[in-house]
Amino acid sequence: MHLFELLVVLHVITGATGLIAFWVPIATRKGAMNHRRWGRIACYGFMGAGALAVAMALLSLYGPEERIPSVTDRVLFDGLFGWMMLYLGLLTIGFADYGLSVVRHARDRTALRRFRYQVVIAAVIISALQCGIYGARIGEVLMMAVALLGIVAMSLQQIFIWRPQAPSPKSYVGEHFRALIGMGISAYTAFMSVGLIRWVPEHVFNPLIWAGPSVVGVSLIIWFTVKAKRPASKRASVKPAPTS
Fold this sequence. Notes:
By secondary structure, the protein is mainly α. 77% of the residues lie in helices and 0% in strands. The chain has eight helices and no strands. The chain has helices at residues 2-21, 23-27, 33-62, 74-104, 115-138, 141-162, 171-195, 207-237. Residues 235-241 have low confidence and may be disordered.
């Protein structure tokens, strides 16, 4: 229990760092110094929190028979603090790692096919399948839904990595943006669905709590996508002046 409590403290510190730093690159000019610096801080904070979440999930599943007093159902405890926490931790790491790597290898997409990157994506998919299967077994639709989202996201990343035709030179920007927004969605979902149970256990599977980060994240993706396309649309709409 002392080890678990230490992991919780470190998880809170790294997670809070990521949760706060996440909004700076969202609000600042893309590609500027603050965007890059705070983006890295958010990524490394979330990756640290994700790794600690994986460690806590493994302790919850295979450690001593200890549980949060507010959760008396061992099956639910294993699902929430075991398989789902393990999956969300790996999902957060997967998004952060891909978001940084796709920029690092912007000129060489095939570098993302290396074992080092593929094993991270595979770990996310395997943990998502386990989370979804466990959710189906205990009848928790939301566990299945969040697992499906991760599988779809990782599959889209693989399509970008492995598709034979070369993407446009700037296509990595959209991949980078969507991955890091996904990182924020998974981190905030983990915080609101797993962290808040300590204070409001009766709302652990409240759809509004689960859907909140996804609604905000998807709205940001749509807004920035429209904003990015707007200058190109304006340029396309300008007709060349007639020549004499």
